[in-house]
Amino acid sequence: MKIGPDDIRTVARLARLNLTPEEEASMVTTLDAILTYMETLNALDTTDIEPTAHIIDLETPWRADEVTNEANTEALLANAPARDGNHFRVPKIID
Amino acid sequence: MNPDLDRYEGVIGLEVHAEMLTASKIFCGCSAAFGAPPNDNTCPVCLGMPGVLPVLNRRVVEFAVRAGLAIDCRIARRNRWARKNYFYPDLCKGYQISQFELPICEGGYLDIHVDETTKRVHLTRIHMEEDTGKNIHDAHGDSSLVDFNRSGVPLLEIVSEPEMSSPAEAGAYLRKLRTLVQYLGICDGNMEEGSFRCDANVSVRLRGATELGVKVEVKNMNSFRAVEKAIAFELERQADTLDDGGHLVQETRLWDADREETRSMRSKESAHDYRYFPDPDLPPIILSEDFIETIRRALPELPDARRERFVSAFGLPAYDAEVLTSRRDLAEYFEAVVAAHGNAKAASNWIMGDIIRLIHERKLDDAPIITDWPVPAANLAALIALIDEGTISGKIAKTVFEEMLTSDESPRAIVERKGLVQMSDESAIQAVIDEVLAASPDKVAEYRGGKEKLQGFFVGQVMKATGGKANPPLVNKLLMAKLKA
Amino acid sequence: MTTPLHDLTLAEASARLRDGSVSSEDLTEAALARIAATDETWHSFITVSADEARATARAIDAQRQSGAAAGVLAGIPIAVKDVIATAGIRTTAASKLLEDFVPPYDATVTTRLKNAGAVIIGKANCDEFAMGSSNENSAYGPTRNPWDPTRVPGGSSGGSATAIAGRQAYGSLGTDTGGSIRLPAAYCGVVGMKPTYGRVSRYGVIAYASSLDQVGPFGRTVEDCARMLGVIAGHDPRDSTSVDRPVPDYHAALGGDAAGLRIGVPKEYFIDGMQPAVEGAVRAALDTLGGLGATTSDVSLPHTSYAVACYYILATAEASSNLGRYDGIRYGARQAADDGLASLYRNTRALGFGPEVKRRIMLGTYALSAGYYDAYYLKAQKVRTLIRQDFDRVFADVDVLATPVAPTTAFRLAEKTSDPLAMYLVDVFTNPASLAGLPAIVVPCGRDEAGMPIGLQLIGPPFGEELVLRAAHAFEQATSWHRERPPEPAGAAA
Ligand SMILES: [Mg+2]
Ligand SMILES: [Zn+2]
User: Domain holding A9: CATH number?
Assistant: First the structure.
């Protein structure tokens, strides 16, 4: 087994996903099979191979430090599930 | 000091987040200015809306390189962005664009001065990242509010090695760093508004031990004093806990400024797993030698160099030089005064005294850059010139200075308008002295009988009779001649 | 008998608009009528933007009448995959979580379509957040293959492909991360093209896996795709991974024939268990190209069999991060926080995401998490290098590679839903070019014994769009597969 129920719960917590007991059980089975399949990569010796993070050889382009946006607050808040004036509203945050 | 602390030594590392003084945000064209109405400085990019992408602000890289060069860091010709993944309402994308394995600057150091000794504090790294929005707590009973105006404001994260051992050293490091970023024009250094923030990693270990103790991250300090107090509290708490046979846990604690204590943060997960990985939306940053050299050539004179120059070129005491170079604008003000009239010591005295007092009273020391000085440099220079040429006395100068604070007139104009020109005519002063002595024959007798400290009384009487205008050295000379006669 | 309007290709419709024999309003009404008549069966669309389309069509017609210069796509009804942001038109990514999301911005490709005068007719169905190979992962129900509605259209851009196969639009845009344009094109018997990574802006395209995602066109013909590619390609200062190099005249590339074209045939793309009809059709296509003067040679891409494992690690890792923003705070369907703030996230994401999206978030989170990063994510990044090097090596000797698109033709609905790994393996021939960022086109090249379409994949070197277009066009001109059309759905007015 590559992955068990405890791992699944840890990963679900990291990913902020509530899983039902049924989902949890099915995740264990399918993820275990998939991760086992992914281990086929271990057949390759990659010792001196550079990882590829970007497939095209580019540099981060730069823009000038200029303010180009104008306030469009109403349109940007229009999709908010809950708001308070021009703030987004969330359940109370306790530090 | 608490006896516990004698057995332990503190191990302190600081992580500073400095908001950069750019016009626009790091990855979008929104204004980075502080204080706009809620969510006015936002757009799809800094709200993390679906499908939008970051585009880097060139000045952010320039500022990071400027800081790195000033601190003697190694500048990575190739560095890159990483995503730091976590969830919090003020973090709009579920990740912060930051740097991880390949930051833009590594190494470097700052020399700090504490208790007459100089200590070198090394830096681990400096990297660029985006700021988060701001959660507003305690707004309405069961809700918090989120404002994303700050989301995407560029930050420099400056991480020190854990090489400080006391609150005083931490304070000195922090002040030094703030002076430096202000000098470089990359951050206003305002701790209260949160544009210069500091988290402290604090642990203790038995003196002489080499292994590090359990590290506690302390957050939520918004002044230098708070940082020093929070570290002091935390060192003592940790030492006490160990002495009582307790165990310390690696955790994040918040400084409570009202209760002057740190408390454990409930909502933060105990073990972070940020799942850093290279940001696929942003290719690597490649810096050319040319780019770096252009920034190097444009570096302003840095505080240490300037302080030394103030001592060697102007003959100022080390303390004066330290204070005058503690802010770039202050140092520049001083140099402007001296450029207009070359009496550096007098300029220093005026600035160290009256000007700094006024800056403080007018709360100008909170300003990133003071533009609106209580007195223009040219006028302060002119005032010092009037004293040096004997036109007014130092005492009259104080009166003129007070007048200058509410008037645009030149000091000379004020002196003329109010008839404050110093009386340096010997015969006129002699006449006043004669009058004063004649009015107090008994005091004159006492003086001559050996009560020499009455000298001051006579000088005071003469100054009073001349409305403060008599040239004091002359008064002294003539008075002595008369009394000793 | 005259051709019904909906049966015109994009190029034909464009010519009719120019000669004045039809108006954009005619084409738009024809497309809307076709959608109304057929979409209950095929379900190509999540949202049909009829009002906006009609308004645009009228405006374009007025413009044309006033003699104003008309863009390349002026007046042509186009469908857009629902992961591409359209200002003012809801954009759901086929997710329940974004059911009511109306972006206040356009994706750059949307802007380019609009600037070229296209009429956006609706938002095409797809797998949720483009995660899937069958289009069964849409929160709005699956799209069905027009050739056989009991079969899948392929995914994730299934709706964009069926809209073309079913004559509901004259062109469409999809996105391809690991084969999401090419697989549906093959399964539905249309032309689909994935450009070189960086050729088309990703700004406003809801991200699945950012280092792989690329927008591309679907059309009935290679020429239609070339026209659309010319419109959407090009540097975008809002996408830092978009490449700043000139866009060639893709239409001009079609003039060439196949003579002298060096075609490589990678042996790893013909595997055991492959449907014989698929191999047969691809081999026949190679013969056709050979007959047109192309030379074919066997080549080897030795790391091909590692591509699926490599792809699903990298794509899910990036996805787990890209989907972090769906927290129900700034937009999206928020679920009640029954247990403080943390439950707001957990509940919103648990109820808003479908099973496959959750599975990929879980996989990707695991692959990036402390202790597993090196074994999975970093390992996959290194294998990606090996796969790219395979292609670099063969492109020294050949101009394009010709391969099958998938081991079989379209499978039946629900056939693979209980076995995610089997579903992932459908991508075995499309994942390698995705990992290498290469341009690839799919053209119809046959039908199997059940009548299901088979596609030919032509892969080019980086920015070799002209080469693959030229090869595909030459093949298309010599064959008639692209002229075949699926049967009318039961009950649909023809
Ligand atoms: Mg940071
Ligand atoms: Zn913004």
Answer: 1.10.20.60
Here the tokens at position C123 are: 């938002």
Round to whole Å and give the CA distance between C379 and A49. 9
Condensed to tens digits (0 to 9), the pLDDT of residues C393-410 reads 999 999 999 999 999 999
Q: At how many degrees (to 10) do helices B441-448 and B455-465 cross? A: 150
Q: What residues does C8 pair with on adjacent strands?
A: none
End-to-end CA, chain B: 61
pTM of the model: 0.92
pLDDT value for B1: 47
> How is residue B1 written in tokens?
């000091």
Mean pLDDT value of segment C30-58: 98
Q: Each residue of B286-322: pLDDT tens digit?
A: 999 999 999 999 999 999 999 999 999 999 999 999 9
Question: What CATH number belongs to B426-484?
Answer: 1.10.10.410
Residues 6+ apart with CB under 8 A from B32: B19, B20, B22, B23, B24, B25, B41, B152, B153, B154
Could you give the CA distance from residue B39 to residue B133 in angstroms, rounded to a whole number?
Answer: 9
* Contact check, Cβ <8 Å, B278/A53: yes
Confidence band (pLDDT; 50, 70, 90) for B266? low
Q: State the DSSP H helix or E strand holding residue C350, giving kind and residue range, or none if neither.
A: helix C340-352
Distance CA C189, CA B187 (A): 59
In tens, the pLDDT along C71-104 reads 889 999 999 999 999 999 999 999 999 999 999 9
Complex-level ipTM: 0.97
User: Range of A31's domain?
Assistant: 5-42
Beta-strand runs (E) in B49-183? 56-57, 74-75, 78-79, 82-85, 95-98, 105-106, 109-114, 117-130, 134-140, 143-147, 154-160
Domain total for chain A?
1
Amino acid at C217: P
Q: Does residue B326 have a pLDDT over 80? A: yes
Cβ(B130)–Cβ(B98) below 8 Å: yes
B139 touching chain A per CB within 8 A: yes
> In sequence order, what are the residues at sequence separation of 6 or more whose Cβ sits closer than 8 angstroms to the Cβ of residue B108?
B68, B71, B72, B73, B74, B122, B123, B126
Mutation target for A interface from C366, C376, C427: give the one with most A CBs within 10 A.
Answer: C366
Identify whether A34 is part of a domain: yes
What percentage of chain C reaches a pLDDT higher than 70? 99
- Compute the average pLDDT of residues B214-222: 94
Phi-psi region of B180 (alpha: psi -120 to 50; beta: other; left: phi over 0): alpha
Q: Is residue A24 part of a domain?
A: yes
Interchain pair C206, B44: CB under 8 A? no
User: Is C156 in the active site?
Assistant: yes
How far is Cα C213 from Cα C73, in angstroms, rounded to an integer?
A: 24
Per-window interface: B 209-268 vs A, CB < 8 A:
254, 265-268
Say yes or no to pLDDT of B2 above 60. Answer: no
Please check whether residue C424 touches A, CB under 8 A.
yes
Q: With respect to residue A49, please indicate whether it lies within any of the assigned structural domains.
A: no
Q: What is the pLDDT of residues C430-458, one digit of tens each?
A: 999 999 999 999 999 999 999 999 999 99
pLDDT tens, position by position, C59-70: 999 999 998 867
Alpha helices in B12-135 (DSSP H): 58-70
Q: Of the candidates A3, A11, A91, which has its C-beta nearest C340's C-beta?
A: A91
- Residue B405 burial (CB count, 10 A): 10
What one-character DSSP code corresponds to residue C179?
S
In this structure, is residue A67 part of a structural domain? Answer: no
Residues of chain B with CATH 1.10.10.410: 426-484
Q: Write out the two tokens for B128.
A: 């660029």
Domains and CATH numbers, chain C: 7-267+395-483 (3.90.1300.10)
| Of residues C218, C141, C232, the one with CA closest to residue C180 | C218
Helix H or strand E segment including B239: helix B224-243
